[in-house]
Amino acid sequence: MNLISNKKLKRIFLTKKTKVDFKNKVDLVLSPEFYWVRKFEIPVKNEKEALKVLPTLYEDILPDEDFEYYCLKTDESKFICFAYNNNTILEHIKNSGLQLSQIRTVYFAQFQMESYESFEIDENAYVYEKDILIKIPKNMILDIESLSNELEGSQFNNHKINMKFYSNVINSKYIYSLVILLGLLVAINALRYYSFDKENNNINERISKIKKNKNMPKTNIQTKSILQSMKKKIDSEIELRKAVAYILTFKKSRDSERIEKISFKENKIKVIFSNSTWRKIKGHIEKKYKISSNSTAGSFVTVVVDI
Amino acid sequence: MNRINPLYILLLFVTFAIVSFSIVANVKKEFANNANKMTEFNKSALEYDSLKNVWFNKKRIQKTLNNLRNEVNIKNAKLEININKNIALIKLTTKEKKVINKFVNKILNKKLMINKMDITNTQVVVEVSLK
């Protein structure tokens, strides 16, 4: 018993009339209805180069549709060439009742039916004429072997068709050009991302370095809080000095009138005046500051100013 | 490969492109934020550094106080400076009013955190914070 069995795999000869109803995997053999086959003598070395000139050689033969090409070198500069409409084949595969996912490989009947001189499938007659398989009217041959769509045997040569199992309105070349363009954009974006990400890391590293060098707190909130606290203390310090400087501008009316003592602590300035009047002192200080308390003892007037 | 419709590949790359633009937009936004953060940080770091070094640097305050000895006319005055861990006490005693005025002016124009200050006609006592 074979571990790998081909029992479930079927070989179907596909014509435009074929109707099948099974779900197994299949290999398709395309009837000559689906392709144009010609022998050409092309002065090129290989099949790849020959394929490039095939659209021109087929130009006068084919209808105005999109065609795919295939060729096989048979002799020096001689090629057997095929042209097929991918979309037409796909359409008939679908009409036959087969799903695209069922199809494993697709072949031209040209190379698969060589064991027959002529044969009949789906009421169509086929014959090899000068080594090329062609479809002919059924009544042109009397003695013809009738075959089923399901071909016997599983021997295939390597001439399988590189068929596209999709149909697009837009040419694949344009689509792939767009894909390349988008790929480039993605690559450019990847580079931009790398560059921005590197810059972001640099910024964070620079910030950490500055914090370390300047012995700054770890978080910005802490820095802001300390800054605010320092500014508040400095502002209060400056304000206090301005107030002291202002109080010292007190103008004496006579020599005995003077400031005996100024002291300040915690935003309060205490000033002791001698031989002056409360009215004059109040007039001077309250031009700019508020007196919170005052007392008089003999010739001394003591005032406390709030900053 | 021939079974995959190139339109699906195109769709996949369109998605990649959209996602890549979105990722780049995010990282660009992050970069703009970081650049702003850097500018603000530089500003506050400079301010922090200058305030800290000018007003709250213990070594600088000690140096300023020690320099006072050279700035005051000691011939006609007695200057005592006691520097402890957290505070410095400065006491100037003189009979010359000019020396008092000059000293008070000097002290008040220096960048020091003054906790307390007593000024009389013969004496100035200042308590400076070293914290």
Describe the protein's architecture and organization.
The complex is a heterodimer of chains A (307) and B (131). In chain A, 34% of the residues lie in helices and 28% in strands. With 307 residues, chain A is of the alpha+beta class. Chain A has three domains: 10-167, no CATH class; 168-216; 243-306. Chain B is α+β, with helices and mostly antiparallel strands. The model of chain B has no long low-confidence stretch (mean pLDDT 89). Strand 12 of chain A pairs antiparallel with strand 3 (114-120) of chain B.
Strand adjacency order, main sheet of chain B:
1-2-4-3
The number of distinct helices of chain B, counting runs of at least 4 residues, comes to 3
Largest interface: A-B, 54 and 45 residues
How many helical elements of chain A? 6
How many β-strand stretches of chain A? 15
Q: Measured on Cα atoms, how large is the radius of gyration of chain B?
A: 32 Å
Share of residues in strands of chain A: 25-35%
Helical content of chain B stands at 55-70%
Q: List the uncertain runs of chain A.
A: 1-6
CATH architecture of the largest domain in chain B: 2-Layer Sandwich
Whole-number mean pLDDT of chain A: 88
Sheet with the most strands, sense and barrel status of chain A: 4 strands, mixed
Number of individual domains of chain B? 2
- Categorize the overall geometry of chain B: rod-shaped
User: What is the CATH C-level name of the largest domain in chain B?
Assistant: Alpha Beta
What is the quaternary state of this protein?
Answer: heterodimer
Rough shape of chain A? rod-shaped
Distance between the termini of chain A: 108 Å
Q: What does the main sheet of chain B amount to?
A: 4 strands, antiparallel
Helix share of residues of chain A?
A: 25-40%
Termini gap of chain B: 76 Å
